[in-house]
Amino acid sequence: MSTYKQLTQEQRYQIYALKKAGHGQMEIANIVDVHKSTISRELCRNRGQRGYRPKQAHMIALARRQQTHKRIQPQTWQLITEKLRADWSPEQISGWMALNGYEQISHEWIYQYVLNDKRAGGDLHVHLRCQKKRRKRYGSYPDTVLKVKGRPVQRARNRGQRVVRISTHRRRYEATCAWQLR
């Protein structure tokens, strides 16, 4: 259950039989050995007019899998390159294309295009307004100990978590112990 696998036709027949026998979604998930949300999604997505049918569900899932994602045409990338060389920002290009009836492309895709161009030895990155390294910051920092107002404080492991601070009661206790040792 730890890795992602698509449901097989046998699993779909098993889901159908268990559902028909009156089992709940959580119970079916445990028997089929998949997550309960997988069962819920399967029953919602692949339901026809006469309810859930495993053969029909499998055909619908295969058809969905065959649909390819739309690729961006080379002419569109050429237009984007022209706008970048005219010192337009990726956000401006994305917005202009949406307003003028071109393919809608996210500004993040344009930034990825510029980054790939830079790695290939291109010069599109010099036309960006912000020359800093663009990267998303998620994940964790190394576990470090900082000093805040002279006190050691352990930095939180993950972004977005609060810094772990020493309580006032513990600081008072440590201060009295240190004073008594003098």
- What Rg do the Cα atoms give? 28 Å
Average pLDDT taken over every residue: 80
- Judging from the principal axes of the Cα atoms, what is the shape? flat
What order do the SSEs take from the amino end to the carboxyl end, as H and E? HHHEEHHHHEEH
pLDDT under 50 segments (min length 5)? none
End-to-end gap: 59 Å
Major beta-sheet overview: 2 strands, antiparallel
Strand adjacency order, main sheet = 1-2
Number of domains: 3
> Class by helix and strand content?
mainly alpha
Number of E-state strands? 4
Helix content percent band? 40-55%
Individual helix count: 8
Share of residues in strands = 5-15%
Quick recap:
The chain has 182 residues and is mostly helical. The protein has helices spanning 9-20, 25-32, 36-45, 54-66, 74-85, 90-99, 107-119, 168-181, and strands spanning 47-48, 51-52, 145-148, 151-154. The chain is built from 8 helices and 4 strands; from the N terminus they run H-H-H-E-E-H-H-H-H-E-E-H.
Brief descriptors of the model:
two-stranded antiparallel ribbon; 182 residues; 3 domains; 51% helix; 4 strands; flat; mainly alpha; single chain
Can you give a write-up of this model?
The chain is mainly alpha-helical. 51% of the residues lie in helices and 7% in strands. It is built from eight helices and four strands; from the N terminus they run αααββααααββα. It has helices spanning 9-20, 25-32, 36-45, 54-66, 74-85, 90-99, 107-119, 168-181; strands at 47-48, 51-52, 145-148, 151-154. It has a two-stranded antiparallel sheet with strand order 1-2. Helix 1 (9-20) runs antiparallel to helix 4 (54-66) and helix 2 (25-32) crosses helix 3.
